User: Fold these one by one.
Assistant:
Number 1:
Amino acid sequence: MVNEDLGKQQKVAIIHQVKEEVSQGRLSENLHVDPSGLVTVTTANRVGTVGIRAVPLPQDVTHLLEGSSELIRTLEHVNMSQREGRNLEVSPRTLEAIAGLKAQLESLLQGRKWRSAVDRIWAFGPRRCGPNILLNSIEGYQRPSVWQCLGSSENPAEAAGQAAVLRDFDNSIISGFQLATLSGPMCEEPLMGVCFSVERWDVQSNPQPQHQDSLEEDSVSDEAIVDNTSETSIQAEGMKAGPSQTRRKAEAASADCYGPVSGQLIAAMKDACRHAFQAQPQRLMAAMYTCEIMATADVLGRVYGVLGKREGRVLHEEMKEGTDMFMIKAVLPVAESFGFADEIRKRTSGLASPQLVFSHWEVINSDPYWVPTTEEEYLHFGEKADSTNQALKYMNAVRRRKGLYVEEKIVEHAEKQRTLSKNK
């Protein structure tokens, strides 16, 4: 019922936890947040580094991707078949639909920051068919396009050869992106309308093989010493073989405790996407019902009262010809719809009957992390700013239901103690 979205910043304020952590220097050594919003995460064994930037997608693009999920799933299935070397026959009608989707994206993604963005799409998510995009903005990394079934990639083999070093862990980056978009940082719900641009991806070209035993590692390192040094240096290194072997064994043991590089890249990519999302203004998206209510003129005020109490919004009302009944059309958040029909019947003594149908997703404009900063805001909202925040209320309700941590004060100014005596 609640999804997460990147929205426009309404006020200059401390609106999320990442900026507080940056200002207080509480970020870990493996994480760096640039003031421009670029988040760089390094794996635990210092082998890989990922740099991610989160950008909100235009609303029209989000709606297009959400409505084309089946077509995107077909496109992903065709691309997977081509990567596995299988020939999958695609009907001309499907190819025309995929070409039409690409043309629509190119027409909607206009501007300097979206230049050639459609051809650089890495993947869609979550579940490889969602309304989020992973963008390839790495210099020098040319990978096969997701539109290769249309013949847009002239020579995929050459492109794969240029990025042979990075292609080994290409699927790890996609998997981390899928995990990050499937559960956002606000209330572990899927993301909507977010573009994650990968601007940096560094992996050591020859990482230490972690599945081999220490004897193989020692033999490989000794052969490297023989190939790269002269005879005099070999004799000098031979005298120090004991301490160096011990050091190499310790390094191999410490590398093994972190697990394979692919798994570390998945975790680093997921963390980078989550922190990049938090480095931008965040908004929740609420599922909305279309509510049609038939009521008499005597109970219109009570109907409006119930709708206003549950954050509903009346779109229009009209009177049915020949009767004294009014048709009211409104939108109501799904999170507020539980018990709505019973309450409206009780308040109107059964003279109004609602009908709820799912309509769309709508961005909640209020910021769940907003706090007062200016003097006028302190005077209006108070230091605690404990006035009703719809987005914060929804977010805390979801987190509490899922057993996640909720930041709230249960006891404030506990200076007095009240002892209740037992009734005898």
Number 2:
Amino acid sequence: MEYWRYIKKLSVLLSLPLLIQYVSGCFIICNTILQITILGERDSRTIIGLCGYSGIVFAQMSFYHWLGNEVIFKSNKIIESCFLSKWYKLDLKSQKHVLILMERAKKPLSITLYNLVFVSLESLGVVARWAYSLFALIKARYN
């Protein structure tokens, strides 16, 4: 049962860096798209560089979210793995331990951001929507 404590410690450890990355990534992606569209950069090298920079920032953010998604996915497999094992051939005490493990696994493990947001691919989509919303707001202000 140590892995629940490990995931909780990992969530506490990653909360501040992920919060900073959420906010800064949102602004960086929005800013680079804004530079391409509003400022009217026409130099192809500059546009390619800005698109590459946005892509790298988005890829860096996606690594954490992919890890969080894998934790959720693998924790959902715990019940299935326990059930498919030959638990019925174990002694009674071990069967009870497997049952407790299966009951605990009903709530999937996940890395959270200050116990508010699950770090998953879904939350990466939320960050992308925030960046677009911020971009649309700023673009509407300048037009």
Number 3:
Amino acid sequence: MLWTPACSNVARSIQKLLPRELPPALIQRPGNLYEVLSRTVDGGVGRRVHQIRWGEKQIEGSYWIVTRSKFKCEGKHGKAWGHLYWKDKLVSPREQRIAGSLKYTWDEGPSVAKKV
């Protein structure tokens, strides 16, 4: 599909229909693991997620690849399983339950060291 003035009019019309402040489900921001995963269509399966604190501790290339998830309470609680990669190396070939899901702040993608 080519981008035409008609397409830009449609995009503007859709933006006018959305509230100025988007609902939490449409905002991509860090949160507990279940909030981050529940924003995706497939429940986060196949996605990389990491704890924000790993980047603050200068740990790079560490993440979980989510293999399955179950949500409760509108995506604020639940259970998630996956494979942990620590510094780009698979820790265990067995699927594990992801710990610290509610305790820490999570985001999508691998961890990146924060500059001091």
